[in-house]
Amino acid sequence: MNREESEKISYGNATIENRKTLTLTGVSNIISFDEVSAILDSQYAVISVEGEDLQIMKMDIDSGEVVITGKINVLAYSDKKQGAKRLGSIFKGGRRA
Description:
alpha+beta; six-stranded antiparallel beta sheet
């Protein structure tokens, strides 16, 4: 696999700085967002973020970069099948333990 092919298969990256700034790459869609949670979609996974006073500081869906600030408590990746099941439970009012 050459470098160009490798770049096309990118899963994206997540960087958390001091639990206050989360930078994600590879994001294709923001499914939902409020001050305590975010659900984002990427090519390979559904990304869940939980925290306090969350704000989107940068959103560039063309490049796939999203920057979220606030107190980051949880960052979770689920494959597409698991993510779809979790989203179903969230929208039906279910909560994770």
